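pipeline/complex-builder :: batch 7 item 3
reading input block
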Amino acid sequence: MSIAFDPTGALDGLRAALDHVRGARSVQILAAIGNGWTPETTDPVLAEAGVPVFGGLFPRVIFDGQSHDRGAVVIGHDEARIAVIDCTGSIAHADTWALPLRGSRTIIIYLDATCPTGPLTSSLFRELGAGPTWLGGGAGALDFVRQPVVITPSGLRAGVAVLAGLDATASLGVTHGWRAFGEPMLVSEARGNDIVSLVWRPAYEAYREAVEAHSGRSFEAEGFFALASTYPLMLERFGAEGVVRDPLAVLPGGVLRCAGEVPSHAGICIAHGDVAGMLAAARAARERAAADRSGGTPRLALTLDCISRALLLGDRLPEELEILRVPGLAQVGALTIGEVASTRDSFLQIHNKTTVLAVIASDKAPG
Amino acid sequence: MKPSAAQLSGLQYELAMALSSSLELEPILEAVLSVLLRQLDGRTAVVLAGDGARTPLVALPRAAAAMMTWLQADETRADGSTEQPLHRLYLEPNGVELHRFSLSGFGVLVLERRGPPLPAEVMRALEPLMERLGRAARACLDHATVRASEARFSELAATVPEVIFECRLAASGELSFDYVSPRGDAVLGLDPATLVEQPRALVDRLHPDDREGLVIALGVAASRRESFEHRVRLGDGGPQTRWLRIAANPRGPREDDRFSGLMEDISAQQQVATAEREAARLRMSSLLGLAGDAMVGADSSGRITHWNRAAEALLGYPASTILGEPLAQIMPERMRAAHAAGMARHMATGESGILGRPVELPALHADGREVQVELLVSRVEDGGEVFFIAVLRDLTERLRAERERARSVAEEQRFASALVELGRVALTDPVGLHGRLTSIVAAVLDIARVSVWSLDPASITCLDLFEAVEGLHSAGLVLEEQAFRPYFAALREESVIIAPDARTHRATSCFRESYLEPFGIVSMLDVPVRTLAGRACCAWRPRSGGTGVTPRSASVSMRPGS
C-alpha cells in the first residue's frame, strides 16, 4: 500500500502521484472538486495508470492533518475488485456487480452525492451485507449539481457509485457527537432524501418551529443553512447511536431535502451539537477504531469526515483532524457529502455529519 | 437506557406501516426486516416458514440464509414442546444476540445483532407486532394462493378454445354477463367487455330464427335453476354463419340467478353433423317414400327435411318447394306461434303435448284451403340428429261418413218421435188419427200427398187426404173395384205396392187419366196400415232407397190392413 499526495490538483501532479504508486494493482484517488477535473482532460491521465482506479472528487481532501480544497491523494492497493453501479434509478443487475465483491473483507464505496441513497444501500446490504466492513462517502460539490465526480476504471462518471473490494481489514470508528432532544416526530411522508411532512405538517414548518423554540434563534434572521447546520435531524436506533440526517435545503411546499434517505413512517428527532461535542466524538471515533482491530498490520488511517462538520468547526477543523490521526500511520481522506460506514456487525446506512475513521490493515508488506 | 413511550410507539408505528405496505409476502417481510435492522442496528434478519422443516423466505442480507444451520441446531436443542414462546433470546459466546420471534401459525423471525442489550420494553413492544406479522404473512399466503388460482384460470381461459362466462338469467330469459373470458373476441366476434356492458349484443348476432328459442331455453333454465345446453347460429345464415353451443350450470344455491358455463364454436362438428344428418335424411326419405300415408319429417329447428309423395298428394306442395321450409308453412297462420313455442319448449325441456298420440288439426293446403288431418308425431334420432316424423291422415272421407251417419240417426230419431206421437194420438184422439197420420208421413217423407183409405171388399174409401203444399185435409172419396180392377187385384196379391212410375205401373196405371196426370203424380207407394185392438196403429217403417218415390211428386196411400 503506497501513498502519494499532490497539493496542486493539476493533471501533471496526478501523473506524478500515479507514477509514485506504480506497481500497485489498483489505485484509489481522493481529489478535491476544486481541481476542476473533467472527463475530457482527466480520463486519459487515469487511463495512463494502467490499473483499475477508483475514488471521487470531494469538497476537500485530507492529508496529514490538513484539509485541502485542491489536490489529490493517491493510494496504491495491493489488490482491489472494482464494480460500478448506476444509481440514477432502481439498482439492477445485482448478480453482475455483487459477484466480484463477494468475499471482500472491506468494501470502499464512493457515490455521486446527488443520487438517492436508499435503493443503493438496501441493495448493497441485501447482496453483500453482514460480511464486509463498509466505508466511504458521497462525492460532489456543495452546489449539488450533478457532474462527473466518481472516479471509475472507465474514467470520471456522474450518477454512479464505485465499489472496491479489499482483502485488507478495516477497523472503524464512527461517531457524530450530536444529541437528540425532545420526543421523536413521525415522518408522515418522505420520498427518498426529501421529507415531505412531519406529523402531517409541512416538514420545514414543524422543523423550524422546534428548532427556533430550542435555539431562541430565527431561520429568517440567520438564514437556513446557518441554523440548520447546528440542528440536524436524527433517526433514532435502539441500542446504537442515532443516524444523522443533514437538512440541506427547503424545497417548495415546505419539503426538507436531506443528505441521505429518510424512511416514511419512521420516528425522527431534532439534534443539536457544538464544537466541543464534535471534537469529543472525533476522539471516540479514534478510540473505537483503535479498539476494533480485526487483524493484520495497520497500514493507513482513512478519514472520511462530513463537510458540514468542517463548516461548523470552521478554523477548528484541523483540531479534529489532528484528533483523528493515528500515530505511525499516514492520514488520508476527504471531507464528504454523507458518509458510508458499517461494521460487519451492523446495518449498512448512509450517515451525515459523521466522522468515519478506518484503520486499514493488511498482512502484505507495503508496496 | 430506558426508551421513551414515544420511541416505542414510533417503532411500533413504523413496523405497523411496514406490515400494511403491500399484499405480497416478500415485500412485507423485507420491509419489516429492514425496519428492525435499522432501528435495532441488526446485523442479519431472516423469516422462515413452517414449524418443522424451516424454509427461508426472506433474509437480509441474502447470505443470512446461512443462519439455517444455527436454526436447525436450535430446533434440535428445543425441548420437544410444540408451544414456542413468542420471543426467545439466545446469547452466543461471541457476544451476538439472537432474537427468535414465533410468528403465530406461520414460522419464525430471527434477528441477529451485536452491541448493547436491547431493553425489555423494546421486546414487549415488538411482541404484538410479531403476532400481527404472523397473521399478515398467512393472509399474504392466502392471497397468493388466490392470485395463483386466478392466474391459472386466466391462462386457462385465454388458451382453451371455449368462451368461459358467468352470467345472470332472469326468468324472462333476459341474459346479462358478469364475466366473459378473452376468447369471446375470437369465438363470438365481440369484445368481452362490450358483451358485459351490452349482453343483448350476443342475441343480436344470432340467426333470427334462433333468437326466440334461446330466450325461451334460458327462461326455462332460470325458472328451474337447472343446467341448459342450446345450439344456435351466429350470423344471418350466409357462408360466414357459424354454430355455437351454449351450455351453463346454475351456481351455488345461494347465488340465485347466477350461472356459469361455456360457449363453443361447433361449426366444424356441425359440418360433420350436417353430413350425417343428410345421410340420415336420405335414409329416412327412402323409408318414408315407401309409406302409403302422408309423412313429413322435420329437424330440431323445425325445418322440413322429408316429404313423401302421399304428403304431396294430400297437401299439394311438391317436395322440391317444401323441403327446407319451416313446418309452420303447412299450418294455418293462427297456429304458427303456438307451434314455435311448443317446439322451443320441447327442445329445451323434452316436454311435448303431441308426441306419440294422434291429434286432429287443420293443415294448410297449397291452394290455401284447410285440410283436416290426423297427426301422429314421433321423435327419431338418427346419426346423432333429432328428427320429428309426422304421419298425416286425411280425415275428409271419414268426417263425411260420420256426418252421414249422424244424419241417419237424426232421421231415425225423427221417425221414432213421429211414431211415439202417432201412438199418443191413437190413444188420446182416435178421431183425429187419420189426419195426424197423413201429416206426419208427409213431413217425415217430404211427400206432397198422403192419404189413408179403408178397404172394403169391392171399394176403398178415403179416410183422410193431406195435400202438403196447400196444407189441406179432405175425406170421403170412394174408389170402386170395377173402375180400377188392376189396382184392387194388386191389393189382394201384394202387401205393398211400390210404383216409381205410377203411370206405367201395372197396378196404378189405371189412375193415369183420372188421378195421376190431373195432380202431376209420378210415383205411388201403397202400404197396409194394421190396426191393433180395434184402433188405428201405424206399425210400418218407410223403406229407404229404391222406392222411386220423388219428394213433392209422389202419393202415398195407406190402407188399413187386416
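note: Chain B has 16 helices and 23 strands.
queue -> next item
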